[in-house]
Amino acid sequence: MPSPLRLAAIDLGSNSFRLEIGVISHGAFERTEYLKESVRQGAGMDSERNLTPQAMQSGWDCLARFGERLAGFKSSQVRAVATQTLREARNRDVFLARAVKILGFPIDVISGREEARLIYKGVSHLLAPSDERRLVVDIGGRSTELILGQNQQPRVMESFRVGSIAWSTRYFPEGLWRRKSFDTAEIAAKAVLDGALQAYHPGNWDIAYGSAGTVSAVSEALVAGGWSDGLVTMQGLDWLKELLIETGQAEGSKIPGLREDRKAIIAGGLAVTRALFQLLGIESLSPTSGGLRHGLLCQMQGSRESASDLRSKTVERLAHKFNIDRAHGSRVGKVATQLFMQIAGDQALDTWDESNRSVRKLRWAAELHEIGSHISHSDYHKHGAYILQNADAMGFSLDELQRLSLLVLGHRGKLRKIEADLALDDFRAQLMALRIAVILCHARRDPRADCISIAQNKGVVKVHCDASWASDFPQSAYLLREEILAWQKTGWPMEFLEL
Question: What CATH fold (topology level) applies to the domain 303-498?
Answer without folding.
Answer: Hypothetical protein af1432 (1.10.3210)
